[in-house]
């Protein structure tokens, strides 16, 4: 009986071995076919072809912002440029920002305190980055991608009464392909040493009319050609969030919007310029408004 059982097991083992040997070549052939299947028309190749121009567009868009001319040189007596750089294993902070010369007017401390304590907030920025890093339990991933925070600015002298400042923040987060940009615009009355906002320049309750003017300009840009493809008009909620986010000169108001508010990161522009002539219906007319003409 024992011999019979042993013989049966031997026959079964031989049969299984033969089955595996016969099936293995077929499996190998199928595997080889899968490896050879992708061609020049495959989806991954198409994605690469599409992503490269977009990546170049993002870089050009960001570089055009960095290359903008401003009036720093003309305002050397008024502004004191501050630089703070801190390079650590986990992050890099590179801040460039202006303070106003308090020796010219002590009340400029209003501007300086706001910039130092609330806007730049170096201590809070560093603490926030480190806190986010501590939440990541994958140490390898944390060390592989150093986060970067950059603040830089452009400053414009509208007249002797007003300076207009564009702050742009570059944020490079762990694992992202390219940095994102966000913007904060500030208009400071040098005579009264106060910040000015939408209601100081434009008629109270004119937000919807201003949004329509903005959208007319954006729609015109979209219809004109290639640069604004995939862009869209600004929503009511977004406009109320960004209604104070503009810089000024003698000829126009220029609104700035973060990535993906009006245009995706790979197309369009960060800003929308509106000539002052088109804003006459919404401009406030009183003595402290430097835009009245």
Supply database-style keywords.
293 residues, alpha+beta, Heat Shock Protein 90, Actin, Chain A, domain 4, 2 domains, six-stranded mixed sheet, three-stranded antiparallel sheet, 8 helices, 9 strands, 41% helix, 24% strand, globular, disordered N terminus
Structural class: alpha+beta
**Side-by-side strand order of the widest sheet:** 1-2-3-4-5-6
Helix content: 40-55%
Q: Would you list the SSEs in sequence order as H and E?
A: HHEEHHHEEEEHHHEEE
Q: What low-confidence regions span 5 or more consecutive residues with pLDDT below 50? A: 1-50
- Which shape, going by the Cα principal axes? globular
Question: C-alpha Rg, in Å?
Answer: 30 Å
User: What is the number of strand segments?
Assistant: 9
Proper CATH architecture of the largest domain: 2-Layer Sandwich
Main sheet characteristics? 6 strands, mixed
- The overall average pLDDT, rounded, is 80
Bin the strand percentage.
15-25%
The CATH class of the largest domain turns out to be Alpha Beta
> Superfamily at the CATH H level of the largest domain?
Fervidobacterium nodosum Rt17-B1 like
Q: Please indicate the count of domains.
A: 2
> How many helices does DSSP assign?
8
Might you state the CATH topology name of the largest domain? Heat Shock Protein 90
């Amino acid at each position: 009986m024992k011999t019979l059982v042993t013989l049966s097991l031997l026959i079964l083992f031989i049969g299984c071995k033969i089955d595996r040997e016969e099936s293995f070549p077929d499996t190998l052939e199928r595997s080889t076919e899968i490896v050879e299947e992708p061609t020049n028309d495959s989806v991954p190749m198409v994605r690469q072809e599409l992503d490269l121009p977009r990546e170049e567009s993002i870089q050009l868009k960001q570089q055009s912002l960095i290359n903008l001319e401003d009036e720093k040189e003309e305002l050397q007596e008024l502004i004191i440029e501050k630089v703070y750089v801190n390079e650590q294993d986990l992050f890099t902070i590179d801040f460039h920002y202006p303070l106003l010369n308090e020796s010219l007017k002590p009340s400029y401390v209003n501007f300086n305190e706001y910039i130092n304590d609330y806007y730049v907030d170096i201590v809070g920025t560093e603490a926030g980055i480190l806190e986010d890093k501590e939440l990541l339990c994958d140490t390898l991933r944390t060390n592989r991608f150093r986060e970067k925070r950059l603040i830089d600015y452009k400053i414009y002298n509208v007249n002797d009464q007003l300076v207009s400042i564009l702050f742009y923040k570059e944020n490079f987060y762990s694992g992202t392909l390219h940095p994102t940009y966000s913007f904060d615009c500030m208009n400071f009355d040098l005579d009264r040493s106060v910040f000015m906002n939408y209601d100081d320049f434009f008629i109270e309750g004119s937000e919807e009319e201003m949004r329509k003017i903005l959208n007319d300009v954006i729609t015109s840009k979209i219809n004109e050609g290639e640069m604004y493809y995939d862009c869209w008009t600004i929503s009511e909620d977004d406009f109320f969030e960004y209604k104070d986010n503009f810089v000024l000169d003698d000829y126009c108001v220029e609104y700035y919007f973060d990535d993906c508010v009006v245009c995706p990161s790979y197309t369009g522009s960060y800003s929308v310029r509106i000539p002052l002539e088109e804003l006459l219906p919404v401009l406030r007319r009183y003595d402290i408004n430097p835009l009245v003409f």
